[in-house]
Specification:
Layout (H helix, E strand, L loop, with lengths): L1 H12 L14 E3 L6 E3 L22 E4 L2 E4 L4 E2 L4 E7 L3 E9 L20 E7 L6 E7 L5 E7 L8 E2 L7 E7 L2 E9 L10 E12 L4 E4 L15 E7 L7 E15 L6 E5 L3 E9 L4 E7 L28 H4 L20 E11 L2 E10 L11 E12 L2 E12 L2 E14 L3 E14 L2 E15 L3 E10 L15 E13 L5 E15 H5 L6 E12 L4 E11 L9 E4 L5 E3 L6 E11 L6 E14 L4 E14 L5 E14 L5 E15 L4 E14 L12 E4 L5 E3 L3 E17 L2 E13 L9 E12 L12
Length: 781
């Protein structure tokens, strides 16, 4: 009944396009013939962005044609033809696309923003500084639903687009009898660009066809190259671009009601909080420098973190940034080894940042005052972050960073340098180094972090040699360090067989040799701790399926640092010392698969099994780690994402279970229109552990030394947590949003069937933000 009601409402909110198509007569630029320097006409016109390319100016546009397949096999002519029409006005760049599809199987859903890549899609890369290293990214599906972000090759990887930030632009699209058409308007005011009167930008357009797992590119891209953006075309002769000074004002208000059981009455009570007011201001000092300021930002509750677990309890878990203020211009703070991690600023009261590019140098400066909730001293923690990166040529750069955090008399300071050099488009060298100084409670410590890597990327043969090291005394209060005090070295050789139009189109074989040392042992020539040899095989079928299989041969050394409080209990109750066991040999097997994105279904899964560490008891164990994901799209507006992650460790001696963890998760979205969505997310995380014993040795119970010096048994436990959220959102464009939601959390203390889940907390919230752009336009997205 709910779905039928929503479907009725959505029919009122949507309209249907016509089928009229205008023919383009502008100059044509063939990607396959190397005609990749484009002169787009400058026209004083204001077309209606409706997904119908019928206005006269589209006939005068430059036309990009002759796409090539990029993935899974490069250098092959695209299966279907694509025309990209480009022209610009004084205030905006206009892009129209005619994507022809002979099969008539175009996939298009009314998806949420940034969730369009299971549909057919068009992706536009604009390198507005023509530095062949950084680009703004715009993508649309056949209905014009948007995705956007940034690609920064100096940090996250050569083709890792960061979708976390949103731009203000317009797009519409429609499915036609022979494919689909989309129409884009990208205001120059939404882009950082050069100061020059006449500019040249880097450009490329990629067409995604998920049902065949193919990507078609206007530029003939080579998948083995070390840089994606260095293979861009050129958009020349852009003159007299009118950007003005961007001024965005985003007032916000948050109101919540929290529920919990009263300790006095035992009844469920709700406490209404005061409305929290805040806001962001974004001001363009110039075309390429932007100043942002915020007061009391808090939109972090809208999207909760997904539960995660790791095989190694020594490793911290990374969660991505989701708060709008920190996401804007986040690529300017991209630093190696996650030395800048804005989630360390837990609940800022006030913050400001300057981002942009000056004389070939990317700049990011951030200052923030955090709430005392994140303080160890009761004072307001203060953060200062500076990141700079200077272009040295296509794909190459030299960077530096400085971060500082003060909490009362305690402080942490990190300063470092890094770089990347690309030679002959296939060789890349990277290096990074930083030093920290930390003072806490009058005790001062300092230590380094450093890394180096070489990569060779050819069409068939690829290699990577990397080493990274973190001193046990290195600290970064403004960054994320998963595990200090180790050195990792890695050697990987891979060969790729490309077989166009064969059943098995791509086959990759890889050998990886990995070594890990404790930092002090590595520096002083000590013994290696962990040795890993991996044999990996991946295959891509012409039908769009991906398959993978691996064999892991590993040997892990004992790490006494995590067992310092361990001891054993004799039958008479006396305490015996924990005797350090020797090395643990492992042999694991891995298999996985991923289906194409069919119209209504996509499925993926992986399974690891074999002999691995029983970490809690430091003994050899049997391990199973599995994942299963299912995406179901019954209609163009309904999407269901179902997943399950499972990890289990059993003793090899008697097969008894040591540890089991699982996370089933369901996310159901119904898109009433481009702007309105109803979403339900529910996740149950459970964990059960047996009482620990000295397995495979004395078999005595393990006891743990407490803070008072006494020993307590490492007893078993079982618990579960159910988190559910209902959210109604209205998101007409970046900045203007409304969220109305309800969330609840329930706990299960143990697995006794008589003890059921008990509600621990719940709450309602309303969050509003509105984008004011004085003197500007109000494009919807």
């Amino acid at each position: 009944m709910l779905i039928l009601t929503l479907a009725t409402l959505s029919a009122v909110l949507q309209g249907g396009p016509t089928d009229h198509i205008a023919s383009a007569t502008g100059r044509s630029y063939s990607g396959r013939r190397g005609e990749t320097t484009v002169q787009a006409p400058r026209l004083a016109a204001k077309p209606v962005i409706d997904g119908v390319l019928d206005e006269p100016m589209w006939r005068e546009a430059a036309v990009l044609t002759d796409f090539s397949q990029y993935k899974p096999v490069d250098g092959v002519p695209a299966a279907d033809s694509t025309q990209v029409l480009i022209w610009y006005s004084p205030t905006a760049l206009f892009i129209g696309v005619r994507a022809y599809d002979a099969s008539g199987a175009v996939q298009a859903t009314l998806a949420n923003r940034d969730q369009i890549f299971t549909d057919d899609n068009i992706q536009v890369f604009l390198s507005t500084f023509n530095d062949k290293r950084q680009a703004s990214f715009f993508a649309v599906n056949p209905l014009g639903i948007q995705a956007d972000g940034a690609l920064n090759e100096g940090g996250g990887g050569k083709d890792a687009v960061d979708l976390s930030q949103d731009f203000v632009w317009q797009s519409k699209g429609r499915v036609t009898a022979d494919g689909y058409e989309v129409e884009l308007r990208i205001p120059f005011k939404s882009l950082r660009s050069q100061q020059a009167k006449t500019q040249t930008w880097g450009i490329n357009v990629v067409r995604g066809v998920p049902r065949t797992a193919q990507q078609h590119s206007w530029m003939p891209l080579k998948i083995g190259a070390s840089s994606l953006l260095s293979q861009s075309g050129r958009l020349e002769g852009l003159t007299d671009l009118e950007t003005g000074h961007v001024l965005d004002i985003l007032p916000t208000v948050t109101y919540s009601v929290d529920g919990a059981r009263s300790a006095r009455t035992g009844k469920w009570d709700y406490d209404a909080n005061r409305a929290e007011f805040g806001g962001n201001v974004r001001y363009g000092l110039s075309r390429n420098l932007t100043l942002n300021a915020t007061v009391n930002p808090d939109f972090s509750q809208v999207e909760s973190d997904v539960s995660q677990f790791t095989l190694d309890p020594r490793e911290a878990v990374f969660f991505p940034e989701k708060r709008p203020f920190f996401l804007d211009g986040i690529e300017q703070f991209d630093a190696p080894s996650n030395l800048i991690y804005t989630r360390r600023i837990v609940q800022p009261l006030v913050a400001a940042k300057l981002t942009g590019k000056v004389s070939g140098t990317q700049i990011g400066v951030l200052a923030a005052v955090d709430d005392t909730i994140a303080s160890a001293t009761g004072d307001h923690p203060l953060f200062g972050i500076v990141r700079a990166s200077h272009d040295l040529g296509p794909g190459s750069r030299l960077g530096a960073l400085w971060t500082e955090q003060h909490d009362g008399d305690n402080f942490n300071r990190v300063y470092g340098a890094d770089g990347r050099v690309v030679l002959n488009k296939i060789h890349s060298f990277t290096f990074a180094g930083a030093m920290s100084r930390t003072e806490r409670n009058g005790v001062s410590t300092s230590g380094p972090i450093w890394s180096a890597a070489y990569r060779l990327g050819k069409r068939s043969f690829r290699t990577a040699y990397t080493i990274n090291a973190i001193s046990p005394d290195f600290r970064s209060n403004a960054g994320f360090i998963s595990r200090p005090g180790i050195v990792n070295a890695n050697i990987a050789h891979a060969y790729v067989w490309l077989r166009p139009k064969k059943t098995l189109e791509v086959l990759t074989g890889q050998i990886v040799l990995f070594g890990q040392w404790r930092y002090d042992d590595f520096i002083h020539g000590g013994e290696i701790q962990n040795r890993l040899l991996h044999f990996d095989f991946t295959g891509h079928l012409r039908s769009g399926w991906d398959l993978n299989a691996s064999v892991y041969d590993e040997s892990f050394g004992y790490d006494p640092s995590i067992f310092t409080r361990y001891a054993l209990q004799n039958p008479d109750g006396s305490i015996a010392p924990w005797v350090a066991p020797g090395r643990i040999p492992n042999r694991d097997y891995v298999a996985g698969f991923s289906s194409p994105n069919y119209k209504h279904l996509q499925v993926n899964g992986s399974l690891l099994w074999g002999h691995d560490e029983n970490f809690p008891e430091w003994a050899s164990g049997n391990i199973i780690v599995g994942t299963l994901g299912l995406t179901v799209r019954p209609t163009s507006q309904l999407r269901m994402n179902l997943s399950y992650n499972h990890q289990q460790v059993n003793r090899r001696t008697d097969g008894s279970r040591v540890l089991v963890q699982g996370v089933p998760r369901a996310r159901i979205e119904y898109q009433l229109s481009r702007a309105f969505q109803v979403r339900v997310v529910s996740e149950y995380a459970f964990e059960s552990r047996d009482a620990l014993r000295d397995d495979s040795r004395t078999n005595l119970p393990i006891v743990i030394r407490q803070s008072n010096g006494q020993y307590a048994p490492a007893a078993g436990y079982s618990n579960g947590s159910l988190t559910s959220n209902l959210l109604f959102s209205y998101f007409p464009n970046p900045g203007t949003v409304m969220y109305v939601g309800y969330g609840t959390n329930s706990l299960r203390p143990n697995d006794d069937l008589r003890d059921k889940l008990g509600r621990q907390s719940d709450g309602f919230f309303v969050k509003l933000s509105y984008l004011f752009r004085p003197g500007g336009e109000r494009p919807t997205g």
